[in-house]
Amino acid sequence: MAEGSVALRQVTLDDKYDLSKDHVFITGTQAVIRMLMMQRERDRLAGLNTAGLVSGYRGSPIGGLDQNLWRARKWLDQSNIVFQPGLNEELAATAIWGAQQAEVRGEGKYDGVFGLWYGKGPGVDRSGDVFRHANMAGSSKHGGVLALMGDDHTAESSTVAHQSEFHFVDVMMPILNPAGVQEILDYGLYGYAMSRFSGTWVAFKCVKDNIESTSSVDASLDRVKIIIPDDFTMPPGGLNIRNRDGVLDQEARLQDFKRDAMLAFVRANNLNRIVLSGGRNPKIGIITVGKSYLDVRQALDELGLDEVKANDMGLRLYKVACPWPLSQRELVDFARGLDKVIVVEEKRSLIEVQLREELYGTANQPVCIGKKDEEGRWLFPVKGALDPNDIAIAIGERLLAYHNNDDLRGRVARLRHAQEVLATTGDVATRTPHFCAGCPHNSSTKVPEGMRAYAGIGCHYMVQWMDRSTEGFTQMGGEGANWIGESPFSKRGHVFQNLGDGTYNHSGVLALRWSIHTKTNVTYKILFNDAVAMTGGQKHEGGLTVDMIARQVREEGVERIALVTDEPHKYPKEIRWPAGMTIHHRSELEAVQRQLAEVPGVSVMIYDQTCASEKRRRRKRGEFPDPDKRVIINDLVCEACGDCSVQSNCVAVQPVETEFGRKRQIDQSNCNKDFSCVNGFCPSFVTVHGAKVKKAVPETVSTEGMSFKPLPDPAIPAIDRTFNVIVTGVGGTGVVTIGAILGMAAHLEGKGLGMIDMAGLAQKGGAVYSHVRLANNQDDIHAIRVSADSAHLVLGCDLVVTGTKKVLAAVKQGQTALVVNTAEVMPGEFTRNADFSLPTERLKRAIRSAAGQEGVSFVDATAIATALLGNAIAANMFMLGYAYQTGRIPLSGAAIEKAIELNGEAVKMNLAAFTWGRRAAAEPEVIATMIGELKAPTESRKLSETLDEVVERRVAFLSGYQSRRYARRYSGLVERVRAAEDKAVPGSTALTDAMARSLFKLMAYKDEYEVARLYTNGHFEKQVASAFEGENLRYEFHMAPPVLAKKDPVTGLPRKMSFGPWMLKAMGVLAKFKALRGTPLDVFGYTHERRTERQLIREFEGRIEEIVAKLDAGNHATAIGLASIPQKIRGFGHIKERNLKAAKAEEADLLAKLRADPQPIAVAAE
Fold first, then answer.
1. Which of 204, 228, 364, 1152 is the most buried (most CB within 10 A)?
2. Contact call for residues 351 and 289 (beta carbons, < 8 A)
3. Whole-model pTM?
């Protein structure tokens, strides 16, 4: 266990919903749920018997609310709170409206029902009609409604950036905008009281920075004191919902009384308040709201302005809780005596327009700036989001007009410089979001050549950047309706339309119904993946099943329905399928799509395969079958052609560098066992049944028998106001867990904390960031996102993400420490570009340049964690241990370990990884030696260091491949080139190296004898033994022998077959006949592919002679290019033939250049 004398709080995971606990560690989403429970308990204590109803539809940034509500069901049940997820947003809002009517007819079970609606911005759009009607009708006296609008201001996980306040202004619903997690609790309670008092629904602003952040908060029941206004006179009958209420009567109450009631409530409870008075002589005022308030406070911190200094400079700050409606009286009071008012709010101006309207015509009206500055130029643009540094510059420059302050001037200059650097610096490399390993979209989104598809909402959306003839999308539920409008005016006669099962259930069936009515030629590809994947794998409302969809679309009028699945035999015999529907294995996808494209009108293909991430989650819980097998790639057989990536589109297929070039390997930690990679046209794939990923050491770390010293206590850095951490990584690898561990550890120590995860469309393969601020006092934490020059630690769990300008902008030399994982994890682009390489050295240089040499520690955490614990996922926790031991984390080891235990996920492995990370920092040499012994590379993965070694190893290989004579033929040619190169370009061996590798590749062509030898010469068995453990392992080989393989009736290409363990024995026999290679008795040698391979050797030998004859310093580079061409002729069968054609075209250009008249090597400079 880690050392540490800090007294830790007694904490359980239930604290967040335990109303007896006053101080809790909680996310914004969980705070919503606790707030509901607090409302019910406060009602009970006030003598009211109330209940609650929650309904809505998921979507970022409130995509996880429904999951958390399900997990909290036992707590909700105890509080009389019903959670009924909506089929879509507008129906959910209608249900909430209904709950407000429960007692108006005297039939209610409770004194009132408080309602909570939730939906993201587009859900607000589609629910406007309900909001208008329901708000006009009003809320119940002891009920009330909050409408949570989930706004994604920067479209991080949306198809459009959105801002919803103006929808609610239009229907005259007051708006509350909480600045953080604490205010979600506080404003939620104020919101229900306001709703009850004013008889209106209350809109509640949710952005990532409040709803998806985490904090340590005061959650005591009596924290919020509600004051009922005494300066407002209720009209007869009050303002709440009534039975048999006239429409015009409703409008009259809304216009004549309800707005004034809203303002009275805000005023009585001091919700909009002056936070900084501006001292004796206030000159500049700032008015701000929600997230922007936290940004403003952070901006003041960056300017070095605490409350005393701000007041000395005459800076007044007005914090708005309710941005609509605003009171003229309060705005006039705030602006009195000011020369200038700066309005800081994101997106379109809501406060600024009211401020201008209410101050117009008043005496001594100050200058108002916000969206535009004093000269009419953009100051805080309506696009994107605001940044604390940009706000600080705007405030600082205006304060300097009043105060000649050198410190302030220096801070503004530094911020301006950071702003300019960020604007002019590009990224060395980036990560683009990609489908998860084994995702059904990897297969389902394929489109036959020459055809086109439209994307769908959700994960489908990402296919648009994957070279799959898919472009364009609609709003949720509009899928296919766009083609109804386009098709009469298009030359194209048919398209495919992707449609997720969640979207189909939500509203997409309506577009399908209309497509049938209009007789539009379209094939709907309905993906049934048994989960709403992008928001966390939730189940569908209503228990939607594949056969329900099939029967429904048949009843709608679709005649041709095909079901494509990875498991055609899994369906019970009693299922009632529509007559004429066909069921196919996913290997028939191409043929099925071509058939459906010929069907007039609407056809439907249902693609049934469970979401890969959901499979992984369920397997962890023991709720989903886990095939007892693993895929391995024989790296000596692999040609690195990339067809396995093309077939699978899978990010678990990764490169591995070997002596004989880059090959492919399966990232076993990332693999979700989809197995579509084995369809790559290559005999290197083997499924190993009974295999478990090998672990080098037990999960529980023991130093017994090891030469470890006791772990010393690391230095714990001090916290000066805040300590700012950025954790970077790849989606799906546990990055957000590290942030959560740090946050919980801080809470255990009684420290202040703020944490936010930025994953967006990450899924697997995309960039993920966690921003964590730690403080001795919670009040010292304002904006959680770590801004430019302010990071103290960057825990770089991924080299690419760490090297982006977004992260490096936060780095400050002399302040920021970086611990960076050097493992090369290929982005999704690798699935489309077999030769893609990460610019590793450039990334390292960029990181060193930003942080300074002393500020960076590079460590191959993935390799070490995989070797020690058998799981690459452990790398991130290993990194945390490393950073802790090097004195870069201001928390105790005991708190971190307790947080790991409380997290409850893979506790043994994570504790072990944390400790191994500490040991790697304390005794790096010992760990390096240990890893070298545990994970000694197979012979093929030991890379030659000299040209002589390159040649020697290939001579030995070719001797085993054919004969010593054959190998001498190789070495003789190499020596000729070496001599010629040394004469033409003394000291250079680049041409010889290229030729040695290329000639070897051609001479060691992988015919049937060689593939058999490479499986039976002992290498493959060693490779399996180093990767897996298990008893009675059984091999299944995936090959396409020319004599046996059947051809696909659609593509005409050979189909791969599976062969059992007997194939290994058969290959052992076949390998012994290698001496027949090239002789009249070589039955395999008569095929076109084998004849071509022998011809390529002869051609290249001739090419070598020509190069040697013409070689000089002027054409040396061209000669190297020519000598490298054979290394691009990769693959088997049709894949190799395609690559050969491309290589020949490139060779022709280089050959023409070589044969051209030589250009003068040295001429006078001009």
1. 204
2. yes
3. 0.91
